[in-house]
Amino acid sequence: MSGVVAGTSGRAGGGFGADSAAVGPVTGSGATALATTTAPALSPALGRVGLIWAQSDDGVLGVDGDMAWRVPADFKHFRAATMGCGVVMGSRTWHSLGGALPGRNCVVLTRRGVAGPTCASTLDEALQLAGAGLGPDSREGIYRTFPRVWVVGGAQVYQLALDSDLADVLVISELELDARAKLGPLHGRQLTLAPQVDYSRFRLEASASDSHWRPPSGDARWRVKTWVRA
After folding, report:
1. 154: preceding bond cis by omega (within 30 degrees)
2. Weakly modelled stretches of the chain, pLDDT under 50
3. CA-CA distance, 64 to 177, in Å (whole number)?
4. 97 by DSSP, 3-state: which?
5. Over the stretch 26-55, which tens digit does the pLDDT of each residue have?
6. Are 217 and 72 contacting, i.e. CB atoms less than 8 angstroms apart?
């Protein structure tokens, strides 16, 4: 969603197919709290806790805490997947958004506290708070099989969820875009890179993945790949 995958209030466009060394410092949410492995009780078809992000062909999430591209159809996809759900983010992601994502229960993972949102000092606590008190699932189609609790950024929070074995589902929008070439010389700007995923621990869910590129939207063609805990 951004460099900061979730750096917008919306990111459902299109259906799914039937088959299926950083440049500059890496930045993230700044949250490094330890987590336990207890996940929320909510359990849709594909899993309880999801990670959702968009990345370029060269593995970039964003630059200087913001998006490095504009792909409106992917924004709609993000919104369709997360609407009515609980979302967990780091403090940098929160500040980059300028506030809460409408229609979602937002929890900020931080050890320093942030004015306004519900905050948690560990990822386990954040996931529990994000999943608490959610109403009926109003999502449609394949999105109803997706988790009700999401991690939406930044890079360090994604990595923490993966390293803590808390991720059941990965919903990754792949953009046909070379972000480094698009951005040109960084001149001190900081790239945010996609988390490191051990794909041997996941399987591709063909029913929720695109077998072909979707039509161009804004800066790029795009496609969704959904990975489920093996």
Report:
1. yes
2. 1-15, 17-41
3. 18
4. helix
5. 333 333 333 333 444 455 677 899 999 999
6. yes
